[in-house]
Amino acid sequence: MVLASFLFATMGVCVKLASADYAPGEIMFYRGVTGAVVIWMLARSRGMSLRTSVPMTHFWRSLSGVIAMFLWFYALGNLPVATAMTLNYMSSVWMALFLIGGAAMLGSARVDGRLVATVLLGFGGVAAILRPTIEHDQLWHGLIGLLSGVISATAYLQVAALARAGEPEVRIVFYFSIGGAVFGALTTLWSGVHGHTLKGAALLLAVGLLATVAQLMMTRAYSTGRTLVNASLQYLGIAFSFGYGVLLFNDRVTWMAVGGMLLIVCAGLSATLLRSRAAPPDTANAPLET
Q: Where are the domains of the chain?
């Protein structure tokens, strides 16, 4: 999980660098194609079939996942790396908010006060991060990054449904990669295709390889380790991204931003703990793979 978090943060850096020459849809297309090829080769080497009996569930999971990824790539291209990464990691807090909303819709007499506190803590962290790290003309980009976390939370629900249906992790990642390639190709028809340079091609290849390997490592960690431990280590991605931002992009270091990140980490861990206690094992352990 530590290595997966590092690779995801490194992928975020590559996305930000590639954003200077490519649109988010183009990056998604090449990331999806690379991931699909790697997963197909892995499945073939293991003698594993990629046929599925639940194509529509894969479709909805891929749709929500690729939209979240598109918004996240957009945010990465326009915000500090650590800020975009942290806003995307709000997905666990959004899941807690969904649980509160579901209890209200079902007329539950009791809403867990700890979930409410978790959501408020997470939003406090967002406010602390956005104020010192985002300029006035970047507020739109910050909202896009926040929305990517919301949609990532819905993608989690689909991953959990696929896990309950008995779909192996390799198959889930494969169809997600296919969905990313298709979505990226469609958006590229609108934004246009850019020419390649050696640096640009290397960055696109790196995004695809880093994301695929990190996804497989993260899935393996969640399938063999404890949920809360994995969730804790996964938030190292924020720390790695923060270090990259300072070293490579001269991002500002402010105590308010650091404090906001810590609030979101605490809120995310609390939400994960509460969800893992309330949900069945397969749902609690299903990893979010956007």
A: 2-285
